[in-house]
Amino acid sequence: MDFLATAPHVKTDEPQGGDRHLWPGTASEGVRELANDWSRFRNHVESLGDDRLLQPMGPIAGDYGHESYLLLALHALDEAAHHGAELGVLRDLYLHGYST
């Protein structure tokens, strides 16, 4: 999951993450990629500073321009928790031999 790719209005000089269609081949690679992406996103959010976090994102965010960067960061955290929970369910189903 590339958190910055889901938030194009967070401008950065750093190149975006790799090809989003090249998925990790192992669980370890997946965990490492998720940790790297989250770390990059967190660093960018921290770089905004407290005052900027509370300001509206503005026209670059389209219909969400009136929302704050803090709300965007909260949304990214919510998405990470949501998808992480889905991965946990799939892992548990696989471990217990569930099949359709």
Question: How many helical elements?
Answer: 2
Number of strands: 0
Strand content: under 5%
Q: Can you give the helix content as a percent range?
A: 40-55%
The dominant shape is elongated
Largest sheet: none
Terminal Cα span: 27 Å
Parts with pLDDT < 50 across at least 5 consecutive residues:
none
Radius of gyration: 16 Å
- Category by helix and strand content: mainly alpha
Which whole number gives the mean pLDDT?
82
H-E string: HH
Can you walk me through this structure?
With 100 residues, this protein is an all-alpha fold. It has two helices and no strands. The protein has helices at residues 27-53, 69-95. Helix 1 (27-53) packs antiparallel against helix 2 (69-95). The protein is elongated, with a radius of gyration of 16 Å. The chain starts with 26 loop residues before the first helix and ends in a 5-residue tail after the last helix. The mean pLDDT is 82.
Quick structural summary:
With 100 residues, this protein is mostly helical. Helix content is 54%, strand content 0%. It is elongated, with a radius of gyration of 16 Å.
Task: Note the topology.
Layout: H1 27-53, H2 69-95
Attribute tags:
2 helices, 100 residues, elongated, mainly alpha
